[in-house]
C-alpha cells in the first residue's frame, strides 16, 4: 500500500464539544432535516465522528462511527455484500456527503483491495491462481438516526485493471449546501502511476451514473500525464474546485518534485473540468522544485485558502524538514495566487527545522481553531520529536491566518491525552470537524488529530481554544490495528 496518508480516518465530528442548534421537529421518515453543523449524521445539531481502521479484522477493515451522544456503531466489511477476499482494507478512506439526495448524510468508505485473493504457490501443490482485487467504494446510506448497512451502494473502479489505488483517497464535491454531492475518488496508481480522479454523480435511488475520469491528458487540463506522478494521491475540495496532489510529478526532470492541479467545473457543465497546475517552479511559489520535495503530498482548502504540504523540502542543511505553501484561491478564474511558504523556520512559527521532521505531512484549514471566527492552518510534522532519545513522536502546529500566530502540540504537551513513544507520529494526520455554521464571526470548528500507528491508535478532537482534548480509541481493542488511519 502506498502510504497511510491515503488511509483516511473518517472523523465524523464529535459534537460532544460542538454544541449546536436546538433540536427541531423530528425528521421525516423520507429524509432528514437540515443541520446547522456540517458533519451531523443523525441531525441532532452536533457533529459526529467517523474513524477508519483498515487493518482491523485481519486486514478486512472496518469503520467506527462515534455519534456525539456517545452511541458508537462499528461497521465491518463482512457485514456488507460480496466476498471481501484476503485483505480488502475497507476503511482506508472515509467521506460524508448526501450522495443520494434525500437530505441525509451518507458515508462513503473505500475498500481498495476488495475481493483480492492471493495466488497459491504452485510448489505447495495448490496452484490456485487467486483473484484480482475489485477496488470499490461502498456508500452507506444515512437515515435520520444514523448510518445503515442495509442496501449499500457499490461504486466500482471504472477500469478494474491493474491496481489503481481506487478507494485510498476520497473527497466530496458539493458547491452549495443544498446541492447533491459528487463523490471524488483518487486513482493515483492508475496507468503506471499517471493517476487519475474519478467523479461519480448519483440518481435518486442512489445509483452512480457513468463516471467522469480526469487526468492530466484530459482536454482543458494543462500539462500531460506522466508515469509515477501519482495524480490523485491527495485530494481536497472547495466550491467548484478539487485540488489534486501529484507529489510524484517530475518537474524539469527532477523526480518527485511534485505538483498540484486545481480542477474546476461550472454549474452549467458539472462534469467538465478545467485544470491549472502548480509546482515549486511556478511564478511566486517559494522553494524551487527539487528532486524529492513531494510538493502536493498533502492538500487542504477552506475559506479561500489552499495549503499544499511539501514534507520533504530541505531547509538549509536540514534534510526533509518540510514546509507548507499557502495560496489564495481566485474562485471565478479557477486559479491560485501564491502567498507564502510556511515552515518551522518562519518567524513566529513555534519549533525549529530538523532533519526528517516532515512538517507538512498532513495539513488542514478550519475556522475558529484558536479564536472564534478566525481561519487557521493546522500542520502535522509526523517525524518531529521533543526528545532526541524518543524519535518520531510527531507534533502538530496550529497557526491563525494570515498572521501565523499559534501553538505547537505533541503527546507530551499539557492536557494532551496519551504519552510520547517512539514512532507515535507515523502517518499522523489532521482534519477539521465543522462547528455550528450560523455566524461566521463566531464559528469554532474543532481540530482532529489522528495517530493511528501505535499499537492502540488514538484520535484526538479539540477546539484548542478549549484547552482540552477528547481522546477516542477503538471500541474493539485489540483487534483494532490502525484506528485512525482515516478521518474526515
Ligand atoms: Ca450528531
Ligand atoms: Ca443521503
Ligand atoms: Ca524545493
Ligand atoms: Ca522541528
UniProtKB/TrEMBL annotation:
Signal peptide range in chain numbering: 1-29
Bias (Acidic residues): 117-126
Segments for region (Disordered): 110-133
Keywords, alphabetical: Glycoprotein, Repeat, Signal
Annotated PANTHER family: GAMMA TUBULIN COMPLEX COMPONENT C-TERMINAL DOMAIN-CONTAINING PROTEIN (PTHR36220:SF1), UNNAMED PRODUCT (PTHR36220)
Protein name: VCBS repeat-containing protein
High-level lineage: Bacteria, Bacillati, Actinomycetota, Actinomycetes, Propionibacteriales
Amino acid at each position: 500500500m502506498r502510504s497511510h496518508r491515503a488511509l483516511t480516518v473518517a472523523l465524523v465530528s464529535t459534537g460532544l464539544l460542538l454544541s449546536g442548534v436546538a433540536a427541531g421537529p423530528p425528521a421525516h421518515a423520507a429524509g432528514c432535516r437540515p443541520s446547522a453543523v456540517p458533519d451531523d449524521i443523525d441531525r441532532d445539531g452536533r457533529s459526529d465522528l467517523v474513524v477508519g481502521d483498515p487493518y482491523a479484522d485481519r486486514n478486512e477493515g472496518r469503520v467506527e462511527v462515534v455519534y456525539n451522544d456517545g452511541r458508537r456503531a462499528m461497521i465491518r466489511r463482512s457485514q456488507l455484500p460480496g466476498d471481501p477476499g484476503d485483505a480488502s482494507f475497507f476503511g482506508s478512506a472515509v467521506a460524508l456527503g448526501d450522495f443520494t439526495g434525500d437530505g441525509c448524510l451518507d458515508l462513503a468508505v473505500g475498500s481498495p483491495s476488495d475481493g483480492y485473493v492471493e495466488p497459491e504457490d504452485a510448489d505447495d501443490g495448490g496452484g490456485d491462481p487467486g483473484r484480482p482485487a475489485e477496488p470499490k467504494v461502498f456508500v452507506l446510506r444515512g437515515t435520520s438516526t444514523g448510518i445503515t448497512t442495509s442496501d449499500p451502494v457499490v461504486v466500482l473502479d471504472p477500469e478494474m485493471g491493474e491496481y489503481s489505488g481506487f478507494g485510498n483517497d476520497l473527497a466530496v464535491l458539493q458547491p452549495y449546501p443544498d446541492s447533491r454531492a459528487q463523490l471524488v475518488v483518487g486513482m493515483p496508481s492508475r496507468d503506471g502511476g499517471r493517476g487519475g480522479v474519478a467523479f461519480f454523480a448519483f440518481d435518486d435511488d442512489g445509483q452512480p451514473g457513468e463516471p467522469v475520469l480526469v487526468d492530466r491528458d484530459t482536454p482543458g487540463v494543462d500539462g500531460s500525464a506522466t508515469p509515477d506522478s501519482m495524480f490523485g494521491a491527495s485530494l481536497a475540495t472547495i466550491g467548484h474546485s478539487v485540488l489534486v496532489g501529484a507529489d510524484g510529478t517530475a518537474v524539469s526532470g527532477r523526480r518527485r518534485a511534485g505538483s498540484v492541479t486545481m480542477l474546476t467545473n461550472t454549474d452549467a457543465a458539472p462534469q467538465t473540468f478545467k485544470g491549472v497546475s502548480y509546482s515549486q517552479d511556478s511564478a511566486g511559489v517559494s522553494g524551487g522544485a527539487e528532486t524529492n520535495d513531494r510538493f502536493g503530498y498533502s492538500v487542504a482548502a477552506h475559506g479561500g485558502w489552499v495549503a499544499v504540504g511539501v514534507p520533504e523540502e530541505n531547509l538549509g542543511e536540514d534534510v526533509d524538514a518540510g514546509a507548507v505553501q499557502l495560496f489564495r484561491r481566485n474562485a471565478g478564474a479557477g486559479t491560485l495566487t501564491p502567498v507564502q511558504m510556511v515552515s518551522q523556520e518562519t518567524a513566529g512559527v513555534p519549533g525549529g527545522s530538523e532533519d526528517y521532521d516532515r512538517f507538512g505531512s498532513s495539513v488542514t484549514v478550519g475556522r475558529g481553531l484558536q479564536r472564534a471566527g478566525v481561519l487557521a492552518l493546522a500542520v502535522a510534522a509526523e517525524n518531529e520529536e521533543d526528545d532526541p532519545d524518543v524519535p518520531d513522536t510527531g507534533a502538530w502546529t496550529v497557526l491563525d491566518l494570515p498572521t501565523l500566530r499559534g501553538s505547537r502540540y505533541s503527546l507530551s504537551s499539557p492536557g494532551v491525552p496519551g504519552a510520547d513513544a517512539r514512532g507515535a507520529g507515523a502517518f499522523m494526520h489532521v482534519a477539521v470537524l465543522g462547528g455550528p455554521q450560523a455566524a461566521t464571526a463566531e464559528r469554532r470548528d474543532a481540530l482532529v488529530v489522528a495517530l493511528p500507528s501505535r499499537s492502540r491508535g488514538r484520535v484526538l478532537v479539540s477546539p484548542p481554544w478549549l484547552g482540552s482534548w477528547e481522546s477516542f480509541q477503538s471500541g474493539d481493542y485489540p483487534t483494532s490495528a490502525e484506528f485512525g488511519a482515516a478521518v474526515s
